[in-house]
Design goal:
Length: 365
């Protein structure tokens, strides 16, 4: 008889793996490896995401790991920027290439004239000379390929050349417009052969129990059902409340569904809200439309009793740091007290020079 896991049980299992049931005192690179990467569309969110997960987290520890090349910021899952360990980037970058190739379909007619056999070597040669911003790369490639759309040239380089962002002395380790360099130059080794089975096992360790559709949503890779079937002898099989098969590592944590889950604040773009096709384990279907803005920004959310109960934003003006809660539904007094305490700690972390902090709650729409 296949065991059925409730939405609550899936919530607690996922939170345990995502370091969200209790902060843990582990090195930042180990944490990023446990999470199988952190989406880093912007430089600041991983700092907040690790603060909410690690005991005693210091900005300097992540800053150092980025600068000593233990961690890299590069295009990976879903063709988006992620913070990855150098080892994981090297192990899984080639595995992502089919998905990155498919992502180029978004170019449509702008892809007219693209010849990867010419453009990729040309781009590599430019980046072997020195790190460059994408504006520089596009301009230089346009000079060589004047009949090809400049944006298509840049996108082709981003998808088809393994690159990493070069950190700087900026507060969050990267400027708004970063330079890129070749991954093999930065890390001293080239990406390895595809390792799809290992990637799926790592996904389950970080986000399981999960279905093939969940893994496809997280990675952007298609048709993963056959991979799960191949791995089936090594996995435990469960069912969700709708009878769908879920797979998991045999010894992965699956705590009791009644284990307490503390108030937590997740930054924008956090993978916890992006890593499953069925996201009810984190956010109710009715609230999913609130997660993404019209320009496709993924909003920061706060968790209460393990589930997303609203979004939040931070404002810093005139030395006053304000965190605004936008709940989906009314919050109980106990929830508001716990969230306010956690929010105050977050404000002191993000804006240590603030003379005043405030936590406010907006009215329910």
């Amino acid at each position: 008889m296949v065991e059925t896991l409730s939405v609550q049980a899936l919530n607690r299992a996922t939170l345990a793996r995502q370091l969200l049931l209790a902060r843990e005192a582990i090195p930042v690179a180990d944490a990023v490896a446990r999470l199988c990467g952190m989406q880093a569309q912007e430089p600041k969110p991983p700092f907040l995401g690790l603060w909410t997960r690690l005991d005693g987290f210091q900005t300097s520890s992540l800053y150092t790991a980025i600068h000593d090349r233990s961690l890299v910021r590069a295009t990976m899952m879903r063709a988006t920027l992620h913070l990855m360990t150098a080892a994981d980037y090297t192990a899984f970058r080639t595995t992502m290439q089919p998905m990155l190739n498919n992502a180029m379909r978004v170019l449509g007619d702008r892809a007219d004239g693209l010849d990867l056999k010419q453009i990729v070597p040309a781009a590599r040669a430019l980046l072997e000379e020195k790190p460059r911003t994408f504006n520089e790369v596009r301009t230089l490639l346009q000079d060589r390929f004047p009949n090809v759309n400049d944006r298509a040239l840049g996108y082709t380089v981003r998808m088809c050349v393994p690159l990493v962002m070069v950190p700087t002395q900026d507060r969050w380790a990267f400027p708004r417009t970063s330079e890129f360099t070749l991954a093999d130059t930065w890390l001293g080794t080239a990406p390895t052969s595809p390792a799809l089975d290992e990637l799926i096992l790592r996904y389950l360790a970080a986000f399981g129990p999960a279905s093939p559709a969940d893994a496809q949503t997280w990675s952007g890779l298609p048709a993963l059902g056959e991979v799960f079937d191949r791995l089936r002898p090594r996995l435990r099989v469960f069912a969700d409340d709708k009878g769908r098969e879920l797979f998991d590592l045999p010894d992965a944590p699956r705590p009791d569904e009644d284990v307490p889950a503390p108030a937590r604040f997740l930054p924008e773009f956090d993978n916890l809200v992006l890593a499953h096709a069925d996201r009810r384990r984190i956010i109710a279907d009715a609230h999913r439309p609130s997660l993404t803005t019209k320009n496709l920004r993924v909003r920061a959310v706060f968790l209460w009793d393990g589930f997303a109960h609203g979004t939040w934003e931070l404002e810093y003006k005139r030395k006053i740091a304000t965190l605004r809660l936008h709940p989906f539904e009314p919050l109980s007094p106990s929830a508001l007290d716990a969230l306010t305490t956690e929010a105050e700690s977050l404000l002191h972390f993000t804006e240590p020079n603030a003379k005043q902090t405030a936590v406010t709650v907006t009215d329910i729409p």
